[in-house]
Design a protein that fits this description.
Layout: H1 28-34, H2 36-39, H3 79-89, E1 115-119, E2 122-125, E3 130-133, H4 136-139, H5 148-158, H6 171-182, E4 188-192, H7 195-212, E5 220-224, H8 233-239, H9 242-245, E6 255-258, H10 263-269, E7 274-279, E8 282-283, E9 289-290, H11 293-306, E10 309-313, H12 327-331, E11 337-340, E12 351-355, H13 376-389, H14 394-415, E13 420-426, E14 429-434, H15 438-447, E15 450-451, E16 453-455, E17 459-462, H16 470-496
Parallel strand pairs: 3-15, 5-6, 5-7, 7-10, 10-11
Antiparallel strand pairs: 1-2, 2-3, 4-12, 8-9, 11-12, 13-14, 14-17, 16-17
Helix pairs in contact: 5-13, 6-13, 14-16, 15-16
The structure holds pyridoxal-5'-phosphate (PLP).
Length: 497
Amino acid sequence: MSYLTSQTLQYGVTHAQESADSLPHVPWLKLAKSAPQDYGFSVSRGFPGGIDTGFTRHKIVSRAALKRRHVSFFGPVNGALRKRVEAGLNIQVTDMTNSAAPHLLPVFARADLGFERGEGCWLIATNGERYLDFTSGVAVNALGHAHPALVKALQEQATKLWHMSNLFQSPDGERLAARLCDESFADFVFFCNSGAEALECVIKVVRRYHAGKGHPDRFRMITFEGAFHGRTLATLAATGSAKYLEGFGPPMEGFDQVPHGELDAVKKAIGPQTAGILIEPIQGEGGVRSATPAFLKALRQLCDERGLLLAFDEVQTGMGRTGDLFAHRRLGVTPDVMSLAKALGGGFPIGACLATAEAASGMTPGSHGSTFGGNPLAVSAANAVLDVMLKPGFFDHVQKMSLLLKQKLASVIDRHGDVVSEIRGEGLLIGIKAVVPSGDLVAALRDEKLLTVGAGDNVVRFLPPLIVTESEIEDSVARLERACAAISAGQTKRAAS
Ligand code: PLP
């Protein structure tokens, strides 16, 4: 066995991470010289400056990618292997623990579980175990992991052009924007890198619209309790959640939050400074809470009557998640501005703000920008996502899988009403309201090797890749059954003792 196991090197970095870039602290040359056969290195000493230009004659470490994968990192590394590794590589072998990320800002409560690679709806952990991924990286990997079309698109683009400033033409970006406009209400698209940035642009478009019409005083937006719009200072203010705002100083001015679904509250909140209304067609983080079509239609009418812009945040609901390219297409209500991100790049970071020409009328050269927005790699990934999603039958498949999942989940509720009580959502943005703490259910599902995501209102989200198959849906429900049974059994045992 020539595989290396369970090494954290001195910085807790495992060999599951493959490139020199992702191992900034690893002494690559030392490793390369001491055990080239294990690492797939070839070493040459031709370039005295120590900079790898990428050209063969300049190479110091010419191929730093690891040859071998599927390595188990958890659990002890003993005996001859440990001796060989420690002696041969002059490094200390330590077993990986929960504290494997001491330098990442501790803003996430990370599970003690890491993944090395993915295939479709499956993730393979660093210890080799297979997990059914019903998180899709929180509604991002809509085409699953390592989809051949996305891999091909990125590989091809990587050999051509990685980055180009927005000071020049972007033919592929223009093509992507045109396709998004063709599929939506929009005339213009601004590309950025994340959901929060897309929302920043939405907010700026709305404010600037009124400023351009001679009313810079109209800058306020109405948002809804339970919303989530991102973590930048403006989107946090729009989100309006005390727990996220705490400790960051006064929230940015200009957002008036009202109870979700209450039209009278919206009407009351509209004042002379109101510029627009911002809403998620389905609140994802807030607990998979849908706005009714009637409510959204009433908002549309209100905006038209009062000269306001209607903005939809489709960062989570967009790109096929709810059974059509955009949730609002199924709801029959059209916004003036919309944010997209998450699944737009299928896992490659890209966000977008879409707007009608009228809504975008205030956005002039210099009024907004982004260094990386519309990056060629991101744009090629997003064009490849659209290639797949716009094939006939893609959204039919999402709807079919949604129906199957909902039916199967309903029968679990019938049998395990002590653990789960309600199903919510559309398409493959499904929420299961838990009776027990939702975190307990997420953990029990993880024990069954099914990955899910918590949400507000004690909800557990099932967000499978949209390419999920019938048998994977059935498999997920079987895992949920077992998790519910385990929780029920634990409750019975506790009650008896
Ligand atoms: N808007 C919605 C509806 C979201 O669900 C999210 C993220 O979960 C965001 C905005 C923020 O996106 P990002 O995390 O990419 O900034």
